[in-house]
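Support request from a user on the community tier.

User writes: "When I paste my structure tokens into the form, the page sometimes reloads and wipes my input. The last time it worked, I copied everything first. Here is what I submitted, just in case something in the input itself triggers the reload:"
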């Protein structure tokens, strides 16, 4: 996965909820730091500094600057999808000629047209307004490149943003015109 913000799990090794989050993060396969706030006073002080009450509220998970206090699994996954777009699965909607990333019910997309039998013209990319500036557009385009390559297509970047992403990575020059 690309562009993963630092993930920290503040907890205590004997805490069942802390153990639950360790299992969940391990299952997802994301790298994280486990900070035992009972064993290490520096970790406890770091956790206390996250709260205005200065309490030792654990388990707490931070994803970059986002703080989640004892979140439900769905809430944790929602924030991971928003903050770590590389963990999202790209979908190819051949009927509507687009590649999509679903981010918590919102759709980022790359639209294309096919000219000649196996050449895609990538004509438009779009990320919902409230999700812009989080790296989702770049991840969308890179995942589109990976998926269309896997499917055996060659492509032409027509959209200026898609061209810009392609031009930043010389590995795509043999596949994307």
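"...and here is what came back when it finally went through:"
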């Amino acid at each position: 996965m690309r562009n993963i913000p630092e993930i920290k799990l503040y907890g205590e090794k004997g805490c069942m909820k802390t153990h639950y989050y360790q299992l969940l993060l391990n299952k997802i396969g994301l790298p994280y730091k486990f900070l035992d706030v009972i064993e290490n006073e520096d970790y406890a002080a770091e956790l206390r500094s996250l709260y205005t009450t200065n309490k030792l509220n654990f388990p707490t998970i931070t994803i970059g600057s986002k703080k989640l206090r004892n979140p439900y699994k769905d809430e944790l996954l929602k924030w991971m999808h928003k903050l770590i777009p590389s963990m999202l699965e790209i979908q190819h909607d051949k009927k509507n000629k687009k590649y999509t990333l679903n981010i918590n019910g919102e759709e980022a997309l790359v639209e294309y047209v096919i000219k000649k039998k196996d050449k895609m013209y990538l004509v438009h990319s779009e990320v919902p307004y409230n999700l812009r500036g989080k790296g989702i557009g770049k991840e969308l385009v890179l995942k589109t490149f990976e998926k269309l390559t896997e499917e055996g297509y060659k492509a032409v970047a027509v959209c200026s943003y898609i061209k810009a992403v392609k031009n930043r990575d010389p590995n795509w020059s043999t596949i994307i015109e």
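Agent notes: The reload is a front-end session timeout and is unrelated to the input. DSSP finds five helices and nine strands in the chain. The longest strand covers residues 106-115. Escalated to web team.
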